Structures are given as structure tokens and as C-alpha cells.
Amino acid sequence: MSLHLRPGQALKLWHDSVLDLVHLDESGLTVRQLSILLTVYLELPPHTVRGVAQKLKVTKPVITRALDSLGRLELVARRRDPADKRNVLIQRTVKGALFVEKLGDFMVSRAQTLPS
Amino acid sequence: MSLHLRPGQALKLWHDSVLDLVHLDESGLTVRQLSILLTVYLELPPHTVRGVAQKLKVTKPVITRALDSLGRLELVARRRDPADKRNVLIQRTVKGALFVEKLGDFMVSRAQTLPS
DNA sequence: CTCGATTGTTACGCAACCGATATAGTGCAG
DNA sequence: CTGCACTATATCGGTTGCGTAACAATCGAG
Q1: Residues with Cβ < 8 Å from A62, sequence gap 6 or more?
Q2: Is residue B68 within 8 Å of residue B32, measured between CB atoms?
Q3: Which nucleotide is nearest to B62 (CA to C1')?
Q4: pLDDT digits (tens, 9 = 90+) for B4-36
Q5: What is the CATH code for A8-112?
Q6: Across the 116 residues of chain A, what is the mean pLDDT of every consecutive 10-residue run?
Q7: B56 chain-A contacts, CB cut-off 8 A
Q8: If 0-12 CB within 10 Å is exposed, 13-18 middle and 19+ buried, where does residue A55 land?
Q9: What stretch of H or E contains A78?
């Protein structure tokens, strides 16, 4: 089952959800950082700097710096890969999980108030 | 008709769309700037600095600076309100309209590929 | 006309981000 | 063991964003 959405509905949904996010004020976030966060919490582990960089099509330093920021906010954590110590595994945190969950709730809630 | 969406679906939809936006690389954008952009293009004019600031619950300088950036990108334009010259009216541009339209298309397209 | 209120902008000091490059640590083939 | 490939991070100069506070322009009541 594919979800049918008209452009106007889609944009309003995005707008409303982003507005909720801004109000949450945990929102010094960049679009890139948000993208990294969602990738880590929605896609299957393990996540490495290189892997995420490829997915977003940005350079590795961009990811490193974003992880610094997200780490400061305790939304993700870093751990060396014991198997290959060159790798850094990006891990989820309780705070990050709650944050992403809240984002999902916002969007679900906003979707219900969309005009037909 | 309200749109039914499960949290998992909603988050994946957000993730996929944001990823498209990042790839678009017009993506030095802040979440706040994106929020302003969508507000200007989805809500009924006129839009003033003060009005948008209230809606996002941020201070006016934040809006002024965001408009500087968005203006540099030609995604919005500014015009003095002839009726009350203290006001600045935030106006849409061709480039901005195309950009927002693309965002909507991304999201619609992504919605169709969501798992049930 | 005048003065207080309102609008948007600018100035300042600080922190964060960017791209590009250089570097340190690790793995692995030979 | 040696050298090369690969991972992530650190460093550099420059740009941009932030919050707070001061500011100029404009309106409108009295």
C-alpha cells in the first residue's frame, strides 16, 4: 500500500512538523544534522562516518563535526569498532531516541489535521 | 478526511524527504530558515518580520538575518509596506516557488514508496 | 507638532559551520 | 616487518549564525 499525498498536503505537513521542531528549540540543528540523526535512528546499524558521509553525499569531516555537535547534545554517541579499530560506530542514545520519537509524534499528529 | 500515518511511516517519510533536500545541496539551510521559507510560501500573505517572528517564537533579528540569507539565495524578497512604512513585506520569488514546489514533489514521491 | 510606541535593522562578541588539507592510527598484502 | 591503503580526526582561514542591546525610521494619539 502506497501512501497517497497531494503536493499541497505534503508541504503543509512538512511545514507544520518543522514548525513544531523549531518550537522545540532543540533546533540549532542544521538540515544536515537532522538528516544524520534520522539516518542513524531509522536505518539498520552499524553506522560509520564513512557510510553516513556516502549516504548524504558529503565529506567525512562534515560528519565528524556534526557528530561533535550531536554528541554535545547527547543525541548520539560514538564508539570505536572493536573489530576494525579504524572505524567509529555511531550509536543511539536514550535522549536521541526520545527526541526522534517526539518528531514522529508531531508528524502523526499534524497529519491528522490535514485538510482533504 | 484526516490522513492516517503511523510513527514509523512518518519518520521514514521525513527522513527520505530531508535526505532529498540535503542532496539538493541548496542545503546550507538551517531548520529555522526552512521553516521561514515554508511559512512564507504556504500561509496567506502579507508576511511581516514581526509576524513571522511570533509564529516561530524567535526574536526579530533572527528573522532579519534569515531573510538576508534567503534573499542572497533569491528564495524570498523584501519590500517596504507602502501603507505603513515601518513594515517590511516578505515576498515570494520565482526561484523560491520552484524550490518549494520541488520539495513538495520529493515528499509526494517518497510517500508513494512507503511500506504499509 | 511633539513625543512615546512600534517596526525592522545594525553592531558587538562569541560560537559553530564550512571546504580543503594535513595528520595519526589501524589493517592488510606481500 | 614494511609499505600502502583506508579510517577518522585535527587544523586552517573564512563565513555565518546566535543573543543582547542599541539604533533609525515611521506612525499616531493628544
Answers
A1: A32, A53, A56
A2: no
A3: D18
A4: 899 999 999 999 999 999 998 666 899 999 999
A5: 1.10.10.10
A6: 85 96 83 96 96 95 96 95 95 96 95 87
A7: 19, 22-23
A8: middle
A9: strand A76-80
The third-level CATH classification (topology) of the domain covering B7-112 is Arc Repressor Mutant, subunit A (1.10.10)
Using a CB-CB cut-off of 8 Å, the residues of chain A touching B42 are: 11-12, 15
Closest CA to A9 of B76, B4, B31, B61: B4
Three-state secondary structure string covering B6-52: CHHHHHHHHHHHHHHHHHHCCCCCEHHHHHHHHHHHHCCCCCEHHHH
Query: Which residues, numbered 87 to 106 in chain A, qualify as contacts with chain B under a Cβ-Cβ cut-off of 8 Å?
Result: 100-101, 103-105
Please say whether the beta carbons of A55 and B28 come within 8 A.
no
- Residue spans of the domains in chain A: they are 8-112
Across the interface, of A1, A100, A101, the residue whose CB is closest to B116 is A1
Find and list the nucleotides of strand D having atoms within 7 Å of a protein beta carbon: 6-11, 16-21, 25-28
- Give the type of residue at A77: A
